[in-house]
Fold Homoserine dehydrogenase.
Amino acid sequence: MTEKAIGVAVLGLGNVGSEVARIIEESAPDLAARIGAPLELRGVAVRRVSDDRGLPVELLTDNVEELVSREDVDLVVEVMGPVEPARKAILTALEGGKSVVTANKALLAQSTGELAQAAERAHVDLYFEAAVAGAIPVIRPLTQSLAGDTVLRVAGIVNGTTNYILSEMSSTGADYSSALADASALGYAEADPTADVEGYDAAAKAAILASIAFHTRVTADDVYREGITKITPEDFDSAKALGCTIKLLSICERVTGSDGQQRVSARVYPALVPLSHPLANVNGAFNAVVVEAEAAGRLMFYGQGAGGAPTASAVMGDLVMAARNRVQGGRGPRESKYAQLPIAPMGIIQTRYYVSMTVTDRPGVLSSVAAEFAKRGVSIAEVRQESMADEGARIVVVTHRATDAALSETVAALADHDAVQEVNSVLRLEGTSE
Amino acid sequence: MTEKAIGVAVLGLGNVGSEVARIIEESAPDLAARIGAPLELRGVAVRRVSDDRGLPVELLTDNVEELVSREDVDLVVEVMGPVEPARKAILTALEGGKSVVTANKALLAQSTGELAQAAERAHVDLYFEAAVAGAIPVIRPLTQSLAGDTVLRVAGIVNGTTNYILSEMSSTGADYSSALADASALGYAEADPTADVEGYDAAAKAAILASIAFHTRVTADDVYREGITKITPEDFDSAKALGCTIKLLSICERVTGSDGQQRVSARVYPALVPLSHPLANVNGAFNAVVVEAEAAGRLMFYGQGAGGAPTASAVMGDLVMAARNRVQGGRGPRESKYAQLPIAPMGIIQTRYYVSMTVTDRPGVLSSVAAEFAKRGVSIAEVRQESMADEGARIVVVTHRATDAALSETVAALADHDAVQEVNSVLRLEGTSE
């Protein structure tokens, strides 16, 4: 093969960066055949240059900006996180006419628009399959395979840490803290697990999914977010009694309000999911995304959502596509024209609620509790009352679909109700038709 | 928008063609925004031109060759089947510099090489996402998302008719004929169901999947094939007792023989699948494909595998991508260099077997039956013997992994064994690790 090599710079040499560098070396002949020209690793940006990084020391540099500006670099792979200095490096690369592959979900959830515009101006590619759900192809199906269809809804389990913790709680009956401790011990949770357990990571991914599914700029700040730290073993017991389990869902939806205006809703919260729903059986550190489109119906994508090798697979797929475009002188699909739908406020979203509360055990309580729902037009689907060891009783209510505003008001009223000692849990119920 | 319109010709006006024509009309503004230029339907090829086809009669023509040669046609959508005259029309279109989107699996399973070369010579796109598993993105993930990874195995349920029949048999205990009758009554099976129930359709799809997954030309004739017509309710009973169900699988695998040579195996047969395997829970007319790749691990894609709307969704995705390439003056990825691995003969493939036989009920039979397996080096994992109402007994044997050659020889010897009245069923067992 006599084609001019394609020069690659890798920013970051963590799990993913090391794996990408390894694949570029070890699969060189295969990659060259697929691309039509060899890939050549021209440099790797690291925080600290040393000779124990598993790569020739002359490839290493701690000067990111210089590396992404080099003339012999055609493609930049950014896997260093966090938002800065990655944002600046990517912009420099794009402005310099280099295509960029990134796995940086926090950055994308904040700056997709800015980055996409820079890529558009420079007529180069910006790919980010690895930013959502690891090796599972989700971005390319949404942007390309469904390009002629209308996406209605995307709902996924896109955070492996929380899914591991919830799966543990479900299968062993453990409480949140001990399931988190297990996850940490196994390396599934970071020392500071906040980004995962409070839903920030899932919200960043929801922002990216909503942006590409609905051709609308959605940032992480637009995403309604609740974490999993308050989920109790009792919630799992109730879920089981209702034929459900509990999952942290990232949901992006096209909603039409009572004013006829189409809006985009993006939200992350733990929800009860019926065991018959495909997402209910996605356990441990696995990820899955369900896409509903007008013509295609319901599609599901399932696989390993994290880890060096799976994430590197997604990066390499993007890298090969960007390199092929480079060789052929073409480029991948440009950014779609944006529909720019407004973001839907949470209050207009219709969901079902599961409310668990401790009440004083005396006649008439159930009826007066039920009245609080009825007063706000919230219809009850199911009620269960259990006497407890001490004087109280536990009431679990599952509602039909109602607006989030009406449901929140109901819960606020219950908290003030004199027979209600405590509202223990409020969770939404997803994946059912009524 | 002042861009020049992209002219589209649709060949065939069945379920899929009508739906494609409808989406081109009804989603015109949306499609134009995504493509950067409007799509315009320039003509539709039908067998018989008449004014009751739901489209202006001046768009219709029965002259396919003339339509695909028209100067104002940039893109051709072929959804008319069968192999001819589709093959000739597609070649004319490609040679005339038009990009082609086709859903014609029978044609692709026979002529991918010829068509891909014609597209390559003309520097145009040939897309065929709709040919395998309807709206489920499988082709694009394999060719693009996993372009930097090494695919090890693809196993899927890609025929909705047989999956409906097998799901029926499993859930109701019906026999094959009445489940087929149900499928026909519901429109899931054609008047002549041979292509589905004998596995020809699944084999064509396996050929396409194997070709793109392993960069090797595989035609339908290279695919080992068994249908589902001999599956009995007793097989489902045995499967259940073993914690399994029965599915018609299309399997494509990279295998390394004892000679160290890498080969591609493509095969279709009904197999026992453990209930814990993701494919076991794919029921009714749904399709699913599991892909195992070196870095990505195991991925699953799930959705509606057939029907006018889902198939049209896949066609429209390809159409938008081809149109975008047209507008930008680039084109999609060219065909990969082909690895051209040889096809593996079935005899060297290692699988597990389930063998059910009726034997004479006398002492020593089980031992002499087991000896037939042992003689050929086939290790037995599980045996169950049941006395039957009349004089015979039923023996079910599940083997460990062994070559298909050794297993076939064993079955032939059992058929000749004097204590074996009949070998009732021979099925493979997939989806387990030993």
User: Anything to note?
Assistant: Chain B has three domains: 6-134+308-328, 139-304, 346-429. Residues 308-328 of chain B form the longest helix (21 residues). Chain B touches chain A through 61 residues (CB under 8 Å). DSSP finds 14 helices and 17 strands in chain B.
